[in-house]
Amino acid sequence: MTDLIASLRRIVGDNHVLTDGDLSAYEQDWRRREHGKALAVVRPGSTEEVATVVKACAANGTAIVPQGGNTGLVVGSTPDTSGTQVVLNLGRMNAVRALDKDNLTITVDAGCILQSLQERCEKEGFLFPLSLAAEGSCTIGGNLGTNAGGTQVVRYGNTRELCLGLEVVNAQGEIWNGLKGLRKDNTGYDLRNLFIGSEGTLGVITAATMKIYPMPASQLTAWAALPSFEAAVQLLGLAHQYLGAGLTGFEVMNRFALTLVDKHMPQLRVPFIDNPDFPYAVVLENSDSESEAHARARFEALMEAAFEQEIALDAVVAENLGQAHNLWHIRESIPLAQVEEGLNIKHDISVPISRIPAFVEHATAVLAHKVPGMRLVNFGHLGDGNLHFNVQAPEGMDAKAFLEEREHEINHIVYDAVAEFGGSISAEHGIGTLKAATLPDYQSPVALSMMRSIKQALDPQGIMNPNCMLARQA
Amino acid sequence: MTDLIASLRRIVGDNHVLTDGDLSAYEQDWRRREHGKALAVVRPGSTEEVATVVKACAANGTAIVPQGGNTGLVVGSTPDTSGTQVVLNLGRMNAVRALDKDNLTITVDAGCILQSLQERCEKEGFLFPLSLAAEGSCTIGGNLGTNAGGTQVVRYGNTRELCLGLEVVNAQGEIWNGLKGLRKDNTGYDLRNLFIGSEGTLGVITAATMKIYPMPASQLTAWAALPSFEAAVQLLGLAHQYLGAGLTGFEVMNRFALTLVDKHMPQLRVPFIDNPDFPYAVVLENSDSESEAHARARFEALMEAAFEQEIALDAVVAENLGQAHNLWHIRESIPLAQVEEGLNIKHDISVPISRIPAFVEHATAVLAHKVPGMRLVNFGHLGDGNLHFNVQAPEGMDAKAFLEEREHEINHIVYDAVAEFGGSISAEHGIGTLKAATLPDYQSPVALSMMRSIKQALDPQGIMNPNCMLARQA
């Protein structure tokens, strides 16, 4: 092991192999659920260095945990407690390699922070539409490794759909340059999409070519108060019809989620919160290539139809950017409001949109029966069928004790309901180590068997992020 | 072999195992370049039958060639001449299983004809946007197996981007049901995209869940005459900016392609054909969720800006559906006009959009130098960087002899230029058997090595479409 560390120091330089001091930022996950111990944290400065590091580890049979911003929610980018795994942190590789205006692409190192990428595009008059809570810290490499989702998926897709090419160091330390930036290329198997979402278990993404879009002339936000969850699904259909691809956001929130925001962040002024007849609300965004006036006229036409069909009871369209930010801020404050209220049991599920109302009714009923008094924080990206169906302890109960006693059981209640309605137990967060033991209960055995064959084919030594995703299946 | 055929007859019924008579429709490719000989043509009626057929072939070590409409252009769905391969034709499996309006998905058997799928969606008020020349005969399974492109990719992506889930019979004859129809699902490796575009070399796609869209209120077509190829790229950028996601088609055609249409189909009345100052023309389509009037106003704003910047010299916006069809018909008649003029050497290439003008200039100069008098039919889906850069024999020369003598050389002149400009030798047609020998010259060795590992992992017997794609690499 000392030999390996000496080799790593030679490859990336002494300053970039960390073995001493407080390495929590690299060894502990974002939600501080697990604290591991790395053999070393290695911070390469180039793709060639990544390749040489992987070769050195492979020669030594040493496991590698690729790491970007380490903001994931499923403990997929931190080492285990053995002290034998190398954390390969891509943070130093954060350059924008090229922005191609005619090709509508940007090519960036994997360690580029998502927000830097957004800002660089905006400066040049373009939109990079991936947007999520951790954008100030997460990296595009991590977004790709986990196929991150966020709030614009209804229009632009997941990180997968935004990517046109990858540069990857595979488990043998070879560099595959797939950064052509083509919108059409049928010359063999789709390696790009195989690495996207593979959570570092097949190789290391070192760079990517991503799609960018001309900045819309206007991005307008509205808030609607709804009589039921069914109404939210109906409003979504109407929004697709009236706004077409202009519909760039559609988020649903239940009343309890909003009351938490109202209670813990009263300055945010949640619309219509005093009216108990509104069990649900949605935030909508309309992006328009013409003008704000046109975006507003289309929103008004949509809302008129919604009022007529009684699927929306009240609505407000943001008058200016400040109001729009405030509406989004309410939506984005739900996780923090939950923390203020106490720990809760988080889920990241998806269900076909047509079946979500029945799923919500069923899962809520089962939970209410088995966990009397539980409080449901039901919110998420309805446009993609993705809910964060979180369970808060009954009022007054000790949240930590509730989690310790009931988390496993409640997860399985929710996942069983998800399975019954044809959904997924991980919509946008991935499997990581947190759900690795649960995955075999809910993923098809035929699919798992093919996945294991692929893992064995591309990483026969099993050195790439070995505790992650398929770990419990090996 | 007689035992296998008897088994196959038991599985799918005597009537659905063809061994005698004229089997050209199954044994010969669409462009009639190759005529093979099948051991048998098997036409299963269900996914379970497909699985049992694959198991029987696997037990016998017999190769399987999956086949949809057999309209591919790279000889990827016909048997070789050995008489030992089973053609597995999916044509009988053509049901629409479900259309889910709230989830915006349609689930169909692989053998469903593309046009039937489009029509079924239209009948219910939805758009299935995949559209290509062979749509009256090709199947969605074939579209998926080859990741087909077409004319709407600039907005909706390739077949890959339209697919939310697959049902597959793998090389072991196991059924993987991945038809959940979710827009977000991160529970392991992306098997869906691995099978899409794998040209039947990893398994058999038996069904798919595809995205559908609300039918736009208006689809308007325009034609613009341009002073140069550079102007086409500039107009594309302007169209993205002015039309946003409304831009659903952007096709470029050089003057020679249009003169062929004018010569062989004079009734089509090519706009501005008498003006020799227009070396290129484009067809644009604007799909609008509001109204035809709005679509027209946006087109006018775009064209005004284009005239001002002198990147368009003249333009016409279709006044009605008949005119729109006529404009598209001109574009779609180019391949037929080429046939009328005589055989030609076809290419299906893509290059980053920013580099296409320089590529066209370079490749044209090299061709003109090495093949004096050659006539270039340059047209295609500029919105996706995809050109059909076809070479017609010099005027008066025997086209058949020209092909026999020069095809190989001309292919490599074009492909070398494509490689120099960072492009792909197969944008939307795939590799098939036609380009299998060429692929290793232009694809990354690291990528090829990973592809071969995956093939070996999922089809260790090598029975799935063995002459296709990676064949020359085994």
| Percent in strands of chain A | 15-25%
Tell the overall outline of chain A: globular
CATH fold field value of the largest domain in chain A: Uridine Diphospho-n-acetylenolpyruvylglucosamine Reductase, domain 3
Counted by DSSP, the helix tally of chain A is: 17
Unreliable stretches of chain A (pLDDT < 50, length at least 5) are none
Class derived from helix and strand content of chain A: alpha+beta
InterPro entries (chains A, B): FAD-bd_oxidored_4_C (IPR004113), FAD-bd_PCMH (IPR016166), FAD-bd_PCMH-like_sf (IPR036318), FAD-bd_PCMH_sub1 (IPR016167), FAD-bd_PCMH_sub2 (IPR016169), FAD-linked_Oxase-like_C (IPR016164), FAD-oxidored/transferase_4 (IPR051264), Oxid_FAD_bind_N (IPR006094)
Domain FAD-binding PCMH-type (chains A, B): 34-215
Pfam families (chains A, B): FAD-oxidase_C (PF02913), FAD_binding_4 (PF01565)
Protein name (chains A, B): FAD/FMN-containing dehydrogenase
Structural notes for this entry:
The structure is a homodimer of 474-residue chains. With 474 residues, the first copy, chain A, is α+β, with helices and mostly antiparallel strands. Chain A has five domains: 2-89, 2-Layer Sandwich (Uridine Diphospho-n-acetylenolpyruvylglucosamine Reductase, domain 2), CATH 3.30.43; 96-214, Uridine Diphospho-n-acetylenolpyruvylglucosamine Reductase, domain 3; 218-335, Alpha-Beta Plaits (2-Layer Sandwich), CATH 3.30.70.2190; 342-420, Alpha-Beta Plaits; 439-473. Chain A is built from 17 helices and 19 strands. The first copy, chain A, has helices at residues 2-12, 24-27, 47-60, 114-123, 140-146, 153-156, 159-162, 191-195, 229-243, 255-264, 292-308, 321-332, 334-341, 356-370, 399-420, 439-442, 445-458, and strands at 17-18, 38-42, 64-67, 85-89, 96-100, 105-109, 126-127, 163-170, 175-178, 203-211, 213-214, 218-226, 247-254, 280-288, 314-317, 344-345, 349-350, 375-381, 386-392. In chain A, the strands form four sheets. In chain A, strands 12, 13, 14, 15, 16, 17, 18 and 19 form an eight-stranded antiparallel beta sheet that branches. In chain A, strands 5-6-10-8-9 form a five-stranded antiparallel beta sheet, with helices on both faces. The first copy, chain A, has a four-stranded mixed beta sheet with strand order 1-2-4-3. In chain A, strand 8 (163-170) and strand 9 form a beta hairpin. The first copy, chain A, starts with a helix and ends in a 16-residue tail after the last helix. At the A-B interface, strand 9, helix 8, strand 11, helix 9 and helix 17 of A face strand 9, helix 8, strand 11, helix 9 and helix 17 of B. Chains A, B: InterPro entries: FAD-bd_oxidored_4_C, FAD-bd_PCMH, FAD-bd_PCMH-like_sf, FAD-bd_PCMH_sub1, FAD-bd_PCMH_sub2, FAD-linked_Oxase-like_C, FAD-oxidored/transferase_4, Oxid_FAD_bind_N. Chains A, B: It comes from Comamonas odontotermitis.
